[in-house]
Amino acid sequence: MLKRIYAVFLARNREFMRDRGTLAWNILMPVILVFGLAFVFGGEGRNQYTVGVLQSSGEIDAAEHPFLESRYIEFVPVTDEADGFRKVERHRLDLLVRFAGERRYWVNPESPRGYFAERLLLQSDAAVGGQMQKARVIGDPIRYVDWVLPGILGMNMMFSCLFGVGYVVVRYRKNGFLKRLRATPLQPHEFIMAQVASRLMLVMIVTAFVYLATHLILDTRMDGSYLTLLLVAAVGCISMVSLGLLIAARVTSEELAGGLLNMISWPMMILSGVWFSLEGAGPAVQGLAKAFPLTHILESARAVMLDGATIVDIAPSMIMLTLLSLVFLALGAHYFRWGPD
Q: Closest Cα partner for 305 from 218, 244, 237?
């Protein structure tokens, strides 16, 4: 059994390495995105301001201050002061304000959108006597490039795993390669395990290379353990490969496979927090985002890199990713078919 898995594993690696265009794209695309975003934005990259209002409980009362009536700003209640500070540092909130009692506001000096939100606040406050006082953010402010780097690496991993496995398996089925494998003692679960192992090794190497290059050149933040981050990447990669194999388990058309993979990948890229936080989104949207493997990957990676989280801290996300992988692999092996008929 192990010899058969190893033989397919080596064959798949050689096929990938000989496709120099795909290999180069997997390496260059995330690097270009990271450097482009670091140069263009340098801070928050969203189109909508999100301001946290620090209060004990209840809904936000717009009558408390003219600033709360500002258009194009999403105001969200914050009941935990420490959590509010953390969200400002992590670019999840552009501004944190408190109107009850002593009026104060907190802003991340590394956030351009926070700067403009601050200007709007001070302009509105001047109309009622200018009582707002600026307070410093607790901890070290985080640059947008520090926050977005896990998102870009996760997005690259997602596309590489889904299309690198799902599309290839469909092509194998269409050109009859899987039918020839069926004549061998190779079992469906053995073929799937070989595909998972091959893609895991290749994606981990590429992701590690891209991360080290951007980390050294841009001096991105890393407060946690590299081994913990490696575990997050490995578990996340397995879950993505498993999802790709499930999608390709019975599909025979490359066009249909491409459509299905895009239908899965684009919602994940938009709702999993690759480019911006969903702090101001509704509960339904945030709940839907939790169903995607990429959301758990990015939350865990950012927790390790920006907050120094340990394995215990990210255990719930790791358990969820493991369960998703087992479900995807079991369903993929059950519904897998060798040929188009």
A: 218
What are the residues whose beta carbons fall under 8 Å from the beta carbon of 33, sequence distance 6 or more?
152
Residue 67 pLDDT level (bands cut at 50, 70, 90): confident
Question: Per the domain annotation, does 153 fall within a domain?
Answer: yes
Cα–Cα distance list, 142 to 111, 149, 231, 276, 298 (Å): 8, 12, 23, 14, 16
- Could you count the other beta carbons within 10 Å of the beta carbon of residue 14? 10
What's the pLDDT tens digit per position in 140-154? Answer: 667 878 888 898 899
β-strand partners of 52: 76, 96
User: How far apart, in whole angstroms, are the C-alpha atoms of residue 294 and residue 265?
Assistant: 9
For residues 173 and 337, give the distance between their C-alpha atoms in angstroms, rounded to a whole number. Answer: 8
Asked whether residue 190 falls in the same domain as residue 65, the answer is: no
Burial of 65 (0-12, 13-18, 19+ CB in 10 A): buried
Report yes or no on 107 lying in a domain. Answer: yes
- Give the whole-angstrom CA distance, residue 272 versus residue 133: 35
- Both 303 and 156 in a single domain? yes
User: What letter does residue 66 receive in the DSSP assignment?
Assistant: G
Query: At 86, is the secondary structure helix, strand, or coil?
Result: helix
Write down how long the chain is.
341
Residues 189 and 75 in one domain: no
Do 94 and 160 lie in a common domain? no
CA distance 106 to 253: 54
In a domain, 341, yes or no: no
Residue 288's Cβ-count burial label (10 Å; 0-12, 13-18, 19+) is middle
Q: Which domain holds residue 187?
A: 2-40+143-335
Q: How confident is the model at residue 231 (pLDDT cuts 50, 70, 90)?
A: very high
Instruction: Judge whether residue 44 has pLDDT over 50.
Output: no
Identify whether 162 is part of a domain. yes
Q: Which residues contact 202 (CB under 8 A, 6 or more apart)?
A: 13, 16, 160, 164
